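Consider this record:
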Amino acid sequence: MADATILFAVREVPEGGGAGAGQLRRVRRELEGRGFDVRWAVTADDAQAVLRTEAGLAGAVVD
């Protein structure tokens, strides 16, 4: 599925050092390996902006 984007609207960014960040990195690598673009939003306003403007949005993971 080329040109498809998955939005992660979560409080923890994958660059963090916690266990949750490690899981996010693994999920991101798997999705990118399958051809998806992964976008991150750590605030509700950012997530809403992506939802309104991202034409190729294939799915969202929301925390």
In short: The mean pLDDT is 86. The CA atoms of residues 14 and 21 lie 4 Å apart. The two ends are 24 Å apart (CA to CA).
